[in-house]
Amino acid sequence: MRIDLHTHSTASDGTDTPAELVRNAAAAGLDVVALTDHDTVGGHAEARAALPEGLTLVTGTEFSCRIDGVSLHMLGYLFDPEEPELARERELVRDDRVPRAQAMVGKLRDLGVPITWGQVARIAGDGAVGRPHIATALVDLGVIASVSDAFTPQWLANNGRAYAEKHELDPFDAIRLVKAAGGVTVFAHPLAVKRGSCVPESAIAELAAAGLDGIEVDHMDHDEPTRARLRGLAADLGLLTTGSSDYHGSRKTCRLGDCTTDPEIYGEIVRRATGAFPVPGAGG
Fold first, then answer.
1. pLDDT tens, position by position, 199-248
2. What is the pLDDT of residue 7?
């Protein structure tokens, strides 16, 4: 089985619609794909309706969190999307994305970049607006060569010149809320140092003690020594280890299935979940 547990669609900052994403996942030879858009479950219904035969969909969300001034992302899988407290927090984070993006556009204009909010809004469409949409606008304007070039201190990296904060969950609350909704939690790309500051291993240990289920180890932003370090940490803390592409369509260079999750780990995630179940494709 080929299992990719971290992808994004146009419901957040990917370039494939949810229907395109599941069709592309099947074409890439995947058996299981998780749709984990940022702070939203808005793409799940479309993905479910278009799910090709032979492909299983895992519903999820990538939650924006912050601890001790450091941003991090928490993947939540197979939770009940209707659970009221979790839905309320998800909406708070998502709704704060617009004023945050507008603030970053304002900072860029102050730096002399001829970007407009209308341009960013058109790129985001109905998706949950985020930094990749602003980065795409900078590429379109010729300010930078690629989306990844925007995530530097010069532009949009954490605490960069044009960075603005948004409402983010405390990761301990995220774990509590997802688990109360019957879901499973995995810390996404925990040591992706090229993205900015990362939480210390002591914090990962505290999250594990609070009920964190796993950490994402095999990821494009983790080199081999980092992956080995994370596997050792996971073994010490009793955490599951996953692998994922973090696919964003044409917005990033990674491809569906570039990194995958061991079938036994996937089976354990499904076993632990009580809020929702994987959806088998019926030829949608």
1. 999 999 999 999 999 999 999 999 999 999 999 999 999 999 999 999 99
2. 98
Residue 239 pLDDT: 98
For 180-209, letters b (16+ CB in 10 Å) and e give ebbbbbbbbbbbbeebbebbeeebbeebbe
**Tokens encoding 43:** 């793409």
What does the pLDDT read at residue 284?
A: 46
What is the pTM assigned to this prediction? 0.90
Residue ranges for the chain with pLDDT beneath 50:
284
Whether 176 contacts 83, CB under 8 Å: no
